[in-house]
Design goal:
The complex is a heterodimer of chains A (about 110) and B (about 170).
Chain A (H helix, E strand, L loop, with lengths): L7 H22 L3 H25 L6 H31 L13
Helix pairs in contact in A: 1-2, 2-3
Chain B lengths: L2 H26 L3 H21 L3 H26 L15 H19 L15 H8 L4 H22 L6
The chains are: A mainly alpha (about 110), B mainly alpha (about 170).
């Protein structure tokens, strides 16, 4: 059996790739812009888990994986705030946020 | 297996199943609010995994920034982009067999890569607490990215306020 205590890296990598695939599926299939943003958050989280796994388990890796994960979290916060501001602006102009219905740039 | 290992296994698989089920709900649920709260489950289970990996600073940052900041922003956005009186918070998706096939192939490739790790990677879990090393690193090696990031956050703040304000009609 692939127990976690025996093969920790493999288990974590499989978990993060599953979450990554769910995130990609969300980004591709959703119509609502806020849902697409949630898919992006899933992808960013799974990548973060990979960075931290390698940083914590590989010998002589230093803490650069942890630093990258911190920067990814901060960038995700910035990206979320700007994306939500854009979505609110779209909602004020068009009254909807379905990305397949937004075919004109301004009204 | 010792008792310690059994306990670690149980904690890991509980967290992993929570994360998997919640992300599945994020990908497939048809109710917008339910999707947002499933995302909460994913973020909490990932925070628990960081704690299990002894990445103490990331554990705190994940809960503070993701759960306390980003998720609240997303729920705000859901509430602001649907009319409150309109209870129908639908969340359409265009699922097709092509997308599912492509995603399954992607998952298979990723699992194959994960199971064939190169031999020279020595697995040895870190035991020391990390916060002190991260603080030292932020002010020595990664000082420049840190400062650039602070400028970027300021720019984002101004940009978000500019984009989200109401236009004054004259």
């Amino acid at each position: 059996m692939l127990w976690f205590t025996k093969y920790p890296v493999e288990n974590l990598l499989i978990l993060s790739s599953a979450v990554f695939c769910f995130g990609i599926y969300t980004i591709v299939t959703r119509k609502n812009a806020v849902s697409i943003l949630m898919g992006v958050e899933l992808v960013l989280n799974s990548v973060n888990l990979n960075f931290i796994t390698f940083s914590q388990f590989v010998d002589n890796a230093g803490i650069s994986g942890n630093m990258v994960a911190i920067f990814v979290i901060v960038l995700a916060a910035a990206e979320a705030s700007v994306a939500l501001a854009i979505i609110l602006g779209i909602y004020q102009n068009f009254g909807r946020v379905d990305v397949d219905k937004l075919t004109s740039l301004r009204n | 297996m010792s008792l310690n290992e059994i306990l670690l296994n149980i904690i890991f698989y509980a967290l992993a199943l929570t994360g998997l089920f919640s992300s599945f709900m994020v990908a497939t649920s048809t109710n917008m609010v339910r999707t947002a709260f499933s995302l909460l489950g994913v973020l909490f289970s990932f925070a628990g995994l960081y704690g299990l990996l002894r990445a103490d600073f990331l554990f705190a940052a994940q809960i503070l920034v993701y759960v306390g900041g980003i998720l609240v922003l997303i729920i705000f956005a859901i509430m602001l982009t649907h009319k409150i009186a309109n209870v129908n918070l639908s969340n359409e998706s265009t699922s097709s067999s092509t997308v599912i096939a492509v995603v399954c192939i992607l998952f298979a490739v990723l699992v194959f890569i994960a199971l064939t790790l190169p031999e020279y990677i020595k697995i040895n879990q870190r035991n020391k607490p990390l916060t002190e090393m991260i603080g030292n690193n932020l002010l020595s090696d990664s000082l420049l990215p840190f400062e650039i990031l602070s400028v970027l956050l300021l720019a984002c703040l101004i940009g978000a306020v500019y984009l989200a304000r109401k236009e004054v009609k004259e």
